[in-house]
Amino acid sequence: MKVSIITITYNSAETLEDTIKSVLAQDYPDIEYIIVDGASKDDTLSIVNRYKDKIATIQSEPDKGIYDAMNKGVRLASGDLIGILNSDDFYADAHVISDIVKTVQSAGADGCYADLVYVDRNETSRVVRTWKSGEYRHGQFMRGWMPPHPTFFVKRAMYEAYGTYSLQLRSAADYELMLRFIHKHGIKVSYLPRVITKMRAGGQSNVTIKNRWRANREDRLAWKMNGLQPGFLTLIRKPLSKLLQYLPR
């Protein structure tokens, strides 16, 4: 099984090298690494070019935002399985992709997800919060559940069948895509019960309580876009649980 990993960058020089190194350190033999840059103005491309011999595709051009860039990466991908690793994030160890592939293949699944830890932005050895996903059962999205997107791997065929990231949403298109794939269309997903991704604390929709509630409005729109009605717990539990994940221990 060929695995495509996509990293989206824009002025990511501060953290990108950790991301790249964590991908290149993987022990899985068939990885296609794709970097889609939004025409960065800092040293991002200089860092990327240090590793260009080990990166399958490097594209740098203006885009319409992070989800437009993700869609570009998906269109460039030729792997059987696709994962997206943000330029603030990095894999926990060298066995992540091997374990993901084993999990997908042994379960005969269309996709896979795992656990994630938030780490201090500067001191990445310090864990701020743990996101433990747990096994998925149908209907859990109605109760405010979602898997962490940086741990989500899905077969390219699912993008071909059910579409890519919606550009109607500014901060919740990853949630909408997983809702569409898993809840609406019922793709088979398997859970890998271990931490595979480390995410630096902070992010577009998560930095403040105000931003988190704004993102929750987008979550509700995601349900509407799919012709679905969210459950009460979706509207209450999801924003509260997300807020707890960004508060320090």
Describe this structure in words.
This protein is an alpha/beta fold. It has one domain (3-246): Spore Coat Polysaccharide Biosynthesis Protein SpsA, Chain A (Alpha-Beta Complex). Helix content is 36%, strand content 22%. The protein has eight helices and nine strands. It has helices at residues 16-24, 44-50, 66-76, 96-107, 156-162, 173-184, 209-225, 232-246; strands at 3-9, 31-37, 57-60, 81-84, 89-91, 111-119, 127-131, 153-155, 189-200. Strands 1, 2, 3, 4, 5, 6, 7, 8 and 9 form a nine-stranded mixed beta sheet that branches. α6 (173-184) crosses α7 (209-225) and α7 packs antiparallel against α8. It is globular, with a radius of gyration of 17 Å.
CATH architecture: Alpha-Beta Complex
What is the CATH domain class? Alpha Beta
Could you say which structural class the secondary elements and strand pairing correspond to? Answer: alpha/beta
Query: Strand share of the residues?
Result: 15-25%
In short:
With 249 residues, this protein is an alpha/beta fold.
